[in-house]
């Protein structure tokens, strides 16, 4: 029966022009979304290239000036501009901490339009922890991004619905169902085969179009084969979910207009209402503290520290004896005082920054807990994960920048306290930032979860119909 | 052979078919006459296993239709009042699809010969059925019965809406099927065609078989009088 169904299903689909319409719709939507996603990634890469060039330019000035100093000359420049002073290097020649987009970043904009992708942590000031946001176009915030994730999560289910909502009811309304029912076949097997054939067609079409659009826009997807396989599998699982929904609605309602309404209702609930509600509940239950208020509080702590500067310096040298020279020649300037009070600052500001992180983590935990309610949340998480644009990626990037800023300071601060000069040799051994994607791949987990949810729904809600081989209730 | 024994179908307090018993042997045609709601289609739906009988049994060639649904369906062909086929497939493709679903596999020449045998003009064989008349679609249905070598033919008001020529052609096809030892059960309103083609006539009212007549023993006029008497009794009661 299967080969017969396959042959005639393809004939029926091609002759009804449905397959062509579907193919063209998916191809156009995917191509436009890939173009948009690629444009965003190219903008990120372009921004990174510009800042890299600026750094190279600054570095060439640094190296030339250091050569002049090492040749024994004394160029006429103020003390705070001399690059042989470690703090001048630390403040005026910071390294770049770049988060380069991944090959598949075009898939999902995720948080990439909210956060920056390059920072230059200086030896002075750690407020960069609060300064990661990008200026975002408010219209874009209102309507979201038309990227591939948007097309897959929001529009693909609608195309699947138009392709499946009347798979059984059409036979009933056309009058062919009774003729089919009079043949020696189990109508439920026939229906499942028909759905399976359409499922394979849609999944394959989607995969092929994704690959073709990647080729069209010169995306080197093979550079991330594991993620590419993950992408294909999660698409297959998401398509499966909507086919299961169509199966259940078809066997339970079996009336084309009612089927369409029911499936659109399911789409609205699972793709729009539930994710938005969970998001709102998260923000209402665990609001993130005001950034402006935090900056003000940090300023107050700073002022308080300045008043206790001597006390702080004594404590600092007691805990860092290697930096104390134990003679009267050691002078403490602005930078000495700044680094001495940095630890105190860090301890006092930690609870403020922690509040922000804790609330954010609670929001994320809430979403993680309820993600199984909506396949759209599972899908969005998976696509952001593949793209490297999830909240987790940006939080980890922030963490890596912070870790690097500590390395950067620790490289220069001992020179300051030991009154050492910064040399060409020091330049060549300066710490460099290398972004590492440390976020574990959640795609496989989400793929398994989505598949299991679909199968569970299929067997639980469809069990009554699956057991009834004669499927009598469908014919009349 | 079609056999029903005390076949009953009720929906709550409403009885659609009550204690219906009849047999249609090979080479016989039983026409069930009756007004709308008399229980004719319900009987056919129970024979097709689309409905479970509340009590009693229905058998095709000695096999209970509820216990051997797939086996009995392989022995029968069903032609509803308005036989619908896949409009974008040709007559040959429709026949090929449904015969393959019945477990039979024929080449195109065989399929064409079945369609010709059923009276469908040769030039229509390779045309999509979307523009076929009801009569032409029913011929495809008969071709399916021929291809399946059906032992039983179930027809639900097959001549309603057909023009006299098509109706006549269809009745001739049934006569041929009868000659080929097929047992035929036909639900119809058409007394004239019933008298013309059947071997037996059953008149149903309110789910009950009121009269079971051997067609050879009754004239058309007598049949009409009997039928109207039963229907009038219904109206009076």
Automatic annotation (TrEMBL), chain A:
Pfam families the record matches: DUF3526
Segments crossing the lipid bilayer: 18-35, 148-168, 199-222, 228-248, 260-278, 443-462
Swiss-Prot/TrEMBL keywords: Membrane, Transmembrane, Transmembrane helix
Designated name of the protein: ABC transporter permease
From TrEMBL, chain B:
Pfam families, per database record: ABC_tran
Domain of life: Bacteria
Repeat is among the record's keywords: no
Xref: Gene3D superfamilies: P-loop containing nucleotide triphosphate hydrolases
Key words of the record: ATP-binding, Nucleotide-binding, Transport
Molecular function (Gene Ontology), one example: ATP hydrolysis activity
Every ABC transporter domain range: 2-231
CDD domains: ABC_DR_subfamily_A
The protein's name: ABC transporter ATP-binding protein
UniProt organism field: Neotamlana nanhaiensis
